[in-house]
Recover the amino acids of this structure.
């Protein structure tokens, strides 16, 4: 060996850097520094420096170290990523066919977290010192400081109810001294038995069963399938208490940030403290604090969006996935992954329990429970004893509204009665904006996005036409851009804003509120409005699918679904399941606490199996039919699916490439290859999209197959992108 000379020997480390390359890069470890797998480092990469993680130490790599760049910084005050987390990163990369560097990038989401937070200035009482003259303000300050701890100057002024000049005066007199104190003290620990509720027998049985699973070596997955309002949250709170008792950290995944506010308050009622939050809306400073706290073990419970799965927990011992059926857990990202499925993997790798909860579980989870892969806990009744809502169909073929109106007379009457009784109504329509399509009455011109194959949606509150796929927007013009006619533009179909307009017309005295994720004011406004609804400050709420997710609105009695058929039209085999879940969830908001809830579903398809299943209340019959259909078609969870999306700026070129890729596919009797076909959204952000679909039996190693295939395919050029989506949501 050329480099056997011990004087030449240097430590070489492979480092995962946040770029989309298949493996790790190698670097020299700076002399006198030591790294281990998992150590976080800064390394030169082309013209810049990036944060990465050491993945392996390669003392005898056959590379001339002289040719290697050197790690520029070792973060030795941050704990190295532990073995379980590293295995998880590798597992996710392997499963999704994503670049491991892009997966590790999700772990290293906060560069700020790697620097210890600088201490800040505080004041403390000098023992025995007294001011020359005692005033009531000064007395209050000294009384506030009785416990001897340090305070920030402004915090102390606020707590004592004095102006900052009083404090400055005491410093000047050497009664208080300026000291340095940590910027953020560690968060208080949850109290395990702070306020336990008396559980119903069904809840208690589920809790007992869940607690037993903590003793299973190898971990387990539990599905809590309980109707809306059955007290699932209370049940998994007790499992959280058990994990805390065992000195483990806990992660709760929620599909929607708008849900966290209510969850935080409930958590506080049960455990006496707030959990840490982790999602896209938290400030960089808090993000850094949570990341550090999770790694040090100071933070015991995190409630977060899917990205929190990649936090560097010191001793994670339980993950709860609430609303586990929700499609928000699987979003198209740089690395498309299902947070629900990856939570199960993380539990499996680290051998701790994972709890999935839903009133309408995914077909996948139901099947896994029925086959005994998951433990099943069912809560068939509401915890408060309240009856489930009465559901009725409003057949729009027989008794629809007049032209230009969207609420059928029967629904209008029900709203009127509910309002008169002082209760809340919720009108649900899964469509943001005012109208999904705008056209010219004179020439038929339709407003389409220039970058996507989608119509522009009118948002009347903001006076804009908006593309819901790329965010492109334009002002609503005064005249038709095609034929120049003035006053010829008409809005076709309803969105929530249009329903709100009709409601204001019909019920001018009622307090109405539109809950939609895209209104100005962002998540803060949404949180405020959710609270208003919860406290009874609104009479009629008009909302998108946002309102279907797990909220507890105690005064809500009536739920009207404006267009129950909206989700059914898709050519997507999951359409029935998704629509069933959405409608069961949204109607399940009615009468949760005190009963007397009612749901009215406006539909043109009163005989559709989804609508019939909802009316009969026989959820199990619906699931059985769905499961049978999936089994026959070999669809998940009975078969495996992967989509390969080819996209590029030139339509013909992208299509040609997709065809060439299809021809390069290895022949394997187990794999059925479909396509290429135009993707459901044929163009997004100016890129044309074609889709190939690979189907295989459950036991088949589809990832290996895809790797071989994509390795053989022609190299994508001219801005082409090939993305793999394992178990796509739409198929
Ligand atoms: P889920 O998560 O199943 O929808 P929640 O846990 O939100 O149900 O509970 C629904 C409502 O029932 C809440 O208002 C909750 O406070 C109440 N609740 C839950 N468990 C009990 C119980 N054991 N006794 C009384 N009320 C309960
Ligand atoms: Zn026109
Ligand atoms: Zn667009």
């Amino acid at each position: 060996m050329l480099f056997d000379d011990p004087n030449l020997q240097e430590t070489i480390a492979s480092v995962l850097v946040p770029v989309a390359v298949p493996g790790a890069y190698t670097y020299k470890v700076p002399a006198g520094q030591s790294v281990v797998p998992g150590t976080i480092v800064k390394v030169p990469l082309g013209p810049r420096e990036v944060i990465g993680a050491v993945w392996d130490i390669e003392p005898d790599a056959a590379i001339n170290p002289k040719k290697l760049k050197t790690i520029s910084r070792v973060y030795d005050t941050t704990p190295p990523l532990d073995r379980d987390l590293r295995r998880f990163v590798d597992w996710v990369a392997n499963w999704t066919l994503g670049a491991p560097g892009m997966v590790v990038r999700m772990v290293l989401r906060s560069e700020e977290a790697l620097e210890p937070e600088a201490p800040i200035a505080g004041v403390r009482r000098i023992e025995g010192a007294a001011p020359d003259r005692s005033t009531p303000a000064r007395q209050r300050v000294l009384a506030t400081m009785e416990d001897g701890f340090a305070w920030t100057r402004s915090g102390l002024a606020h707590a004592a109810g004095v102006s900052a000049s009083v404090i400055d005066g005491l410093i000047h007199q050497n009664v208080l001294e300026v000291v340095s104190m940590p910027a953020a003290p560690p968060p208080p620990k949850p109290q395990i038995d702070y306020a336990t509720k008396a559980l119903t027998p069904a809840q208690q049985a589920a809790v007992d069963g869940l607690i037993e699973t903590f003793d299973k070596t190898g971990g387990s997955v539990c599905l809590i399938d309980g109707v809306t309002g059955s007290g699932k949250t209370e049940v998994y709170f007790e499992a959280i208490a058990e994990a805390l008792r065992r000195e483990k950290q806990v992660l709760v995944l929620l599909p929607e940030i708008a849900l966290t506010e209510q969850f935080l308050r409930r958590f506080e009622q049960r455990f006496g403290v707030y959990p840490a939050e982790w999602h896209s809306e938290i400030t960089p400073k808090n993000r850094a604090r949570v990341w550090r706290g999770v790694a040090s073990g100071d933070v015991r419970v995190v409630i977060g969006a899917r990205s929190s799965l990649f936090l560097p927990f010191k001793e994670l011992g339980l993950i709860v996935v609430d609303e586990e059926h929700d499609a928000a857990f699987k979003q198209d990202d740089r690395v498309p992954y299902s947070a629900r499925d990856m939570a199960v993997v993380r539990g499996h790798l680290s051998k701790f329990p994972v709890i999935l909860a839903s009133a309408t579980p995914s077909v996948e989870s139901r099947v896994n429970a029925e086959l005994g892969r998951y433990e099943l806990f069912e809560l068939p009744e509401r915890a408060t004893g309240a009856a489930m809502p009465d559901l009725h169909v409003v057949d729009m073929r027989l008794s629809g509204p007049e032209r230009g109106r969207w609420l059928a007379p029967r629904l209008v009457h029900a709203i009127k009665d509910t309002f008169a009784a002082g209760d809340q109504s919720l009108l649900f329509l899964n469509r943001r904006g005012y109208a999904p399509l705008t056209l010219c009455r004179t020439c038929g011109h339709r407003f389409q996005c220039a970058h996507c194959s989608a119509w522009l949606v009118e948002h009347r509150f903001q006076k804009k036409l908006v593309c819901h796929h790329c965010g492109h927007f334009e002002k609503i013009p005064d005249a038709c851009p095609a034929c120049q006619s003035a006053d010829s533009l008409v809005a076709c179909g309803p969105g929530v804003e249009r329903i709100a307009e009709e409601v204001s017309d019909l019920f001018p005295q009622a307090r109405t509120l539109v809950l939609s994720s895209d209104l100005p004011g962002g998540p803060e406004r949404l949180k405020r409005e959710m609270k208003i609804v919860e406290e009874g400050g609104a009479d009629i709420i008009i909302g998108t699918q946002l309102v279907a997710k797990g909220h507890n609105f105690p005064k809500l009695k009536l739920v009207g679904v404006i267009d129950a058929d909206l989700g059914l039209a898709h050519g997507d085999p999951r359409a029935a399941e998704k629509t069933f879940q959405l409608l069961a969830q949204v109607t399940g908001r009615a009468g949760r606490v005190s009963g007397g809830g009612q749901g009215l579903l406006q539909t043109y398809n009163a005989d559709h199996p989804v609508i019939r299943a909802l009316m009969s209340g026989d959820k199990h019959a619906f699931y059985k039919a769905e499961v049978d259909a999936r089994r026959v078609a070999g669809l998940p969870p009975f078969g495996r699916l992967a989509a390969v999306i080819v996209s590029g700026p030139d339509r013909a070129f992208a299509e040609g490439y997709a065809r060439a890729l299809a021809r390069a596919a290895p022949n394997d009797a187990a794999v059925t290859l479909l396509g290429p076909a135009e993707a459901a959204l044929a163009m997004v952000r100016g890129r044309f999209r074609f889709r190939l679909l690979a189907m295989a039996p459950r036991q088949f190693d589809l990832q290996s197959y895809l790797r071989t295939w994509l390795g053989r395919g022609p190299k994508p050029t001219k801005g082409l992108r090939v993305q793999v989506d394992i178990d796509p949501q739409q198929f």
The chain has 20 helices and 31 strands.
